[in-house]
Amino acid sequence: MKRQSAVAVLVTLILTGAAQAKDAADLVLYHGKVLTVDKAFSIQSAIVVKDGKVLAVGDDTLAEKYDAPTRIDLKGRTLMPGFMDNHLHPMTQGKRAIDAENAKSVADIQSMLRAKAKELGPGEWITGFGWAEVNLKENRNLTRKDLDVASPENPVVLTRAGGHSSVGNSLPRRTKLQLGSAPH
């Protein structure tokens, strides 16, 4: 009888231990507002991570189900998904380009354009990147007229620092713009 009681106690301990065993994770965040990107864009309160991947998202009971060396009580704060900004601003600094980044004035840019137009000859595209109005003595954006004065015989497009805007000159009358003829 003692043997059966000992076995029963042992089985009970094993089962109790198994019921209390927690799944392993690396990180548990709980008591927060976890913004999800599911179909409903639901808001949960806990998230579990292992090996850099989300294991579970749900309510705070997840914090009891997982054992992790790092546990963070969000104290009601919001947790958002990570954002990966993988867009590019390709720039060329080939034979057609001027380095407008170091220009200190509109006159500097005009001087660069005149030199490049002389080097390339009439009708050839001139490009450039990196100018910013805050770096120019005039503290203003470049205009078509600024470029027309410096390079009346060459098509010009200069992209502002950051790559989100450009300025171009008037298309010279002698230039034949053809598909594929723009600078690469």
Architecture blueprint of SSEs:
Blueprint: H1 2-20, E1 23-24, E2 27-30, E3 33-35, E4 43-44, E5 46-50, E6 53-58, H2 62-65, E7 66-67, E8 70-73, E9 78-79, E10 97-99, H3 106-120, E11 126-131, H4 144-150, E12 156-160, E13 166-168
Parallel strand pairs: 1-7, 2-8, 3-9, 10-11, 11-12
Antiparallel strand pairs: 2-5, 3-4, 5-6, 12-13
Short description:
The chain is of the alpha/beta class and 184 residues long. It folds into 2 domains: 23-79, Urease, subunit C, domain 1, CATH 2.30.40.10; 97-168, no CATH class. It has 4 helices and 13 strands.
Number of strands: 13
Order of helices and strands: HEEEEEEHEEEEHEHEE
The major pleated sheet works out as:
4 strands, mixed
Apparent shape: rod-shaped
Class computed from helices, strands and strand pairing: alpha/beta
Rg, please? 32 Å
Describe this structure in words.
By secondary structure, the protein is an alpha/beta fold. It has two domains: 57 residues, Urease, subunit C, domain 1, CATH 2.30.40; 72 residues, no CATH class. Helices cover 24% and strands 26% of the residues. The protein is built from four helices and 13 strands. The strands form four sheets. It has a four-stranded mixed beta sheet, with no helix packed on it. The protein has a four-stranded mixed beta sheet with strand order 10-11-12-13, with helices on one face. α3 packs across α4. The chain is rod-shaped. The termini are far apart.
